[in-house]
## 1
Amino acid sequence: MDFLKPEYQPTHYAWVADGVAYTRKCDAIETCSIEVAPNMKYLIVTQNSSKYGANNLLVLNQDGTDERRLVNPYLSSSEYKPGDKCEFLGVQNVGNKVLAKIAVTRTLPDSSYKSEPTYVTFYDCDTWASSPLEFIDSRNL
């Protein structure tokens, strides 16, 4: 027996704020995914890192206008090494904070192998201050 899982890929995200309906197309560049912040005041958009680099999280107001772009804290951390590439993988709500996963790709010296550690940080969605980075053992994801 062949069992095929149903696939679901959103084409648009829609929401209503103050009685007005809004939509945002999911095009895998400007919008890869959207999550609502725990305080229900903002939308957090994961964007394509090929275009937006390491800072590929955009915070929108309820009316779809830009509030701020989140700066990837890995770039200013002690873990950062020249040549590292990083990006936000996405977000999820944990309590009243936003957990952001950060993927890093590092070419190892004198080797064709790459190291790909994963980190997380928590954002307070009222101030958008980030917590210190935490390493995640990717074997346990």
## 2
Amino acid sequence: MSTFLKIIFFGATIQLNQNPITVNDNPVVLIPAQNLNVVTMGANLKIDTSSEINASAILEAREIADRKYPEGCVTAELIALDDKAYLFQNTGMIWSNNRTMITLSAKDKINTKLEFKKVKLKSCNVIRNTTIKWSNY
């Protein structure tokens, strides 16, 4: 019950960049307007890859995403308030309304009381014209 209440009161999706950016093998640093709180173990980053994956069906989108961005290709270091870094890496893909997003989740278990102040994002293959979202449900 307490997890459910945390999600209801504190869960959110926050867009981290106001203008589209390009992500490649040179880390992009994003400083959110407010710290990113971990409410549940399902906290993740979503990277819009629609500009790179042109597909008309979910299976086609998955094939392209798996080929272009294999597991571990897209990574983010989330920097906590104590400056400790936590690795998030691509673990899945979302396809809806002809939009494709890669999901990055914590590589290791993270404490639900953490707050992150910075995100360092990179990709083995370029992702152009993208937006980054923090989801915490």
## 3
Amino acid sequence: MPFTTAPSHDGPMKDLNITPFIDVLLVLLVLLIMTIPIMTNVTEVELPNGDGGLEPDPVINVVGLTPGDQMLWNGEPVDKPTLESSIARALALPTEPVLRFSPDPAASYNASAKTILVIKDSGSKKFAFDRLHEHKTFARAE
């Protein structure tokens, strides 16, 4: 019977040493096993159910613009000084009301910008745009 010997390794070894890889996997497995009991502990947190919480603003005032660029305060036509005084009276309330800006889609951009500036200069912190769905397309002035 002839005997064979293993070939000698004169060059670099071509096999990958996976021992460090297995060691790292074992350490991660031990860490996972140790942290599983920690993750199963429950901390009770009472979450809001949506019934209570923040009360809505008692007063919501609408600042509007007509197609003829007439300013409106809650549907009533007003001029600039009357609008400024109405906003000041609204801001003097114990809780600041929301000022909703609701221009007509055909109102001019210039009048809208000036009305927004009046609201901004009043110092109002609660401001919202109303009826945005009507402003998806702009009418051309002819």
